[in-house]
Structure formats: structure tokens, C-alpha cells
Amino acid sequence: MLFMLHGAVGHFRDWHSFSNLLDGYDSNAVDLYAKSDEGLDSYAERLNSAATLGDALIGYSMGGRLALHSLVHPSSKWSRAVIISAHPGLAEEKEKSDRKSSDLRWVELLKTDFDLFLQKWAQQPVFGGHEMSCDKSRKSLSPENIQRCFTSWSLGSQRNLAPELENLQIPVLWITGEKDAKFTEIARKVTVRMPDCRLEVIPGSGHRCPWEQPELTASLIRSFLSA
Hints:
- By secondary structure, the protein is of the alpha/beta class.
- The chain has helices at 16-19, 40-50, 62-72, 93-112, 114-122, 135-139, 143-147, 162-165, 181-191, 209-212, 214-226, and strands at residues 2-5, 27-30, 56-60, 80-84, 172-177, 197-202.
- The protein has two domains: 2-91 and 159-226, Alpha/Beta hydrolase fold, catalytic domain (Rossmann fold, 3-Layer(aba) Sandwich), CATH 3.40.50; 93-150, no CATH class.
- The protein is globular.
């Protein structure tokens, strides 16, 4: 089984068309908003409890950060993992403080004007103008649920997992987009120190690799899973 974790302000339906390209593999697109508010480690432990030996984990962006927490947690049963456009964690306390402040500003906007929040979120430079095909699904989400992406699961609340990832023994495929220079450089620094990790940079893609270059991204994942 493939467990698939969506990004911040994402929706589990984001994976539906992409998972069809992973033919031959059963998938579970996890709704990250379905349960009560939890921190990164407590959610990782609960996610691990739903897995069985041999299952694989795929996480995009915020979902990739949740996946990393699950992989390094002692309860992990995952056989392999795919991490897409994710951050292993900030190292400096000032960086964390600044990120928390930024995320709280997002929270204030989503509370006061949810439509404007969705518009400004989609217009961020990291997405390079690429629109998700199911943004209407986001409008069905409650601001209260999305809020946890910026509080409990803020990058500012996450510890730097890079040192722990150096001890990870399972195979990992780390994917970034060629146009996403920031996250590609972050990935190069962390993956080179991991014992069984391959970095693939998707040509012509920005941050949202599975939706900007779905065929190529799926092909890499299928090859990795079958190796």
C-alpha cells in the first residue's frame, strides 16, 4: 500500500489523478485534516500505527515533512519512501521564529478573508504560477482545519531532522523540480548524507512536481518502487 500525504492548504483529492499513473499499486490518499489537532511527532506516530510492514510512504511539501517525521520515529514500519519538495527542518532559532511569525500572518488572513487567503497562497513565487486543478476542493475545507498547517505543523515548529535522516536505513527517493532552485539545493545538502537516498530533479517542473510533470514523476516513482 502507498500512503500519500498532501501539502499545506492541499486536499487528499490532489492525488487522485496522479495515483492512476502508479498503476499496479494500491494507494491511500490520506486526509490530513480528518483528525483532531496534533503535533508533528504525535501525528507521525499515529500514521505509523496505520501502516503494515512493507507499506511505502509518499509525501509532498508539508506532507513530505510529516513523512520525514514518520520515517525517523521509532514506530516506523515503512519499507521505502518518496519525498517531494520537502524541507527537513530549519537549523537556526531565528529562522524558526521568523517562520512562525510568517505562518501566524497566514492564519490571520485565513480567519478574516478565506477567499483572499486562497488567492494569495496560490500566487506565491514558490509555485511559479502553477495552479492546482482541484482548487475548488480547497474551498470545501474549513479554515479551522487548514489552520493547523500553520500552527501545529509549521516549519517553525519542526526540529531539524537532517541529523536523524543520516541514520535512516530504508531506500528513499527525493524529488524536486528543476525550476525550484531553493528546494533542490536543500535536497542536495540533506540527501548526500543519507545512506540509501537518490535525488531526482524533474526537468521543466517547479515545486509541484506530481502535477506539473505527472508522467515523468510517476515513471521515476514506479521504477523506484519496483527496484
